[in-house]
Design goal:
396 residues; eight-stranded mixed beta sheet; 12 helices; 30% helix; alpha/beta; 20 strands; Alkaline_phosphatase_core_sf; four-stranded antiparallel beta sheet
Length: 396
């Protein structure tokens, strides 16, 4: 009997070994059409062999931290609370920021339950090779293994770290790994989405992902790996001359700029909010709303971190102050943050692996549904979220 029990346990262990590995990759700023636009061979091959969502529609605002966290929680920014890359919380009386800002690593800012905590709560192991939120003690926990963001690490370096983790013994190997690349976004901002520099950045990451496949094949894991390659948002051309100057629209002492650029957020310091909204909205390339009047489809009203006035420029336009314009010596040629209905804001989404239907194509889908797909692939129960199961159709 003991021998039978031991054999049964061994079979269970073997089953755990055979369970597919899930690697979630983000190419920050990778627009939905980039593989073909820039001729990325690995991404095109992966797309042909796997499943492609025509365009993954980001949440508003179409910025990096809000949408990366939406991808892994299934919650919109107004719900999970990361409403911009930089914002003010009136309850904390403190600012949130990215990069070296300490708030990015404080769990109190991050609502919802990210996929790595959902997985760990149900007995799986996780590792994050960068991801917004992965350095914070969300709900008092971190991923089992994670690296602090370091933009000096090349795409190949990041892949090699992932391959170190996948080479671990079965009992130590993560079930879920995130992998983040930032260079395509940086190049898109500096030079524009169609520039040769953006092409070169994507091709470098494309080669790194081919390196990942080669490494997994050498480890005998490629056929067990479900790989999702996606992005937080797209990118559009911007002309530095297309700027609405805030000083010329409202008195600067009447409002505090919480964020500006491709999306504006202003808190009222003095005067009548309706007056300031009307004056901003009168600009031919701006659409201004009181927080509670932001169009419902954008889901950007129900959080006190959202400023009093939300300003949405037309695609390619910016809201800025004269002082910022005068000292901005390297204006960008590409940007994001605009209305998610703009096709250029759409993100890449490719899925490939033993659990994924081969050669399928699906219409555009909102990024709030990705979290539930991740849970399906890990065979775990999702936490509370705002998505549904429509992406389940990509499964075999």
């Amino acid at each position: 009997m003991i021998r039978v029990f031991a054999f049964a346990m061994a079979l269970m262990g073997t089953s755990a070994v055979a369970a597919p590995l899930l690697i979630l990759v983000s190419i920050d700023g990778a627009r939905w059409d980039y593989p073909e636009l820039h001729g990325a061979p690995f991404l095109q091959e992966l797309s042909a062999a796997g499943t492609r969502v025509e365009r993954l529609t980001p949440s508003f605002p179409t910025k990096t931290f809000p949408n990366h966290y939406t991808l892994v929680t299934g919650m919109r920014p107004e719900t999970h609370g990361i409403v911009q890359n930089r914002f003010f919380d009136p309850a904390f009386e403190a600012w949130f920021g990215i990069g070296a800002h300490p708030a990015a690593r404080e769990g109190r800012w991050w609502g919802g339950e990210p996929i790595w905590l959902t997985a760990q709560r149900q007995g799986l192991r996780t590792a994050c090779m960068f991801w917004p939120g992965s350095e914070a003690d969300i709900l008092g926990q971190h991923p089992d293994t994670y690296r602090r963001f370091d933009d000096r690490l090349t795409p190949a370096d990041r892949v090699d770290q992932v391959l170190v983790w996948t080479a671990l013994p079965t009992g130590e190997r993560p079930h879920l790994i995130t992998l983040y690349f930032d260079r395509v976004d940086s190049a898109g901002h500096d030079f524009g989405p169609t520039a040769s520099e953006t092409h070169d950045a994507l091709i470098q990451i494309d080669a790194a992902l081919a390196r990942l496949r080669a490494g997994l094949r050498d480890q005998g894991l490629w056929d067990q790996t479900n790989l999702i390659v996606t992005a937080d948002h797209g990118m559009t051309e911007s002309d530095p001359a297309d700027v609405a100057v805030l000083d010329e629209l409202v008195p600067l002492d009447a409002v505090e700029s919480v964020f500006s650029g491709a999306v504006g957020g202003l808190n009222v310091v003095r005067g009548d909010i309706n007056t300031w909204v009307r004056q901003l909205d009168a600009h031919p390339h701006l659409h201004a709303y009181q927080r509670e009047d932001v169009p419902e489809r954008l889901h950007f009203s129900a959080n006190p971190r959202i400023p009093d006035i939300v300003v949405i420029p037309d695609r390619g336009w910016h809201l800025s102050t004269r002082s910022w314009i005068d000292r901005d010596t390297t204006p960008s040629r590409g940007d994001h943050g605009y209305d998610p209905a703009e096709p250029d804001m759409g993100a890449l989404f490719i899925a490939h692996g033993p659990s994924i239907s081969p050669g399928r194509r699906f219409p555009p889908a909102d990024n709030i549904h990705v979290y539930n797909l991740l849970c399906d692939l890990l065979e775990i129960t999702p936490g509370e979220n705002e998505g549904d199961t429509r992406l389940r159709e990509v499964l075999r």
